[in-house]
Amino acid sequence: MIEAKNISVSYDDRAVLDTISFALERGEIIALLGPNGAGKTTLIKALNGTIGLKKGEVLLGSLSAEQREIHAMSRREIAGLIAVVAQENETKFPVSVLEYVLAGRFVNGGAFGWESENDFETAKRALKDCDLNGYEERLMNNLSGGERQRVVLARAMATNARILLLDEPTANLDLAHQAMMFRLVRERCRGCESAAIVITHDLNLAAEFADKIILLKDGKIAAFGIPAEVLTAEKISDVFGVDVLLDENPASRKVRITAVY
Amino acid sequence: MKRLWKILLILTLVLAASIVAASMLGAERVSLLSMDESQRSILFDIRLPRILLGACVGASLALAGAGLQALLRNPLAEPYLLGVSNGAALGTMLAFVLFEGTEFARPLLALGGAGLATFAVYQMARSRAGMNVERLVLSGVIVTTFLSSIIVMLTTILDAARLRSFTFWLLGDLSQATLTGVYISLAGVLIAVVLLVSQARALNLMMIGERDAADFGVETSRVRLIVFGAASLVVAAAVAASGSVGYVGLIVPHLLRLAVGSDNRIVIPASALAGAAFVVLADTVARVAIAPRELPVGAITALIGAPLFIYLLRKN
Question: For chain A, N or C: smaller number of CB within 10 Å?
Answer without folding.
Answer: C
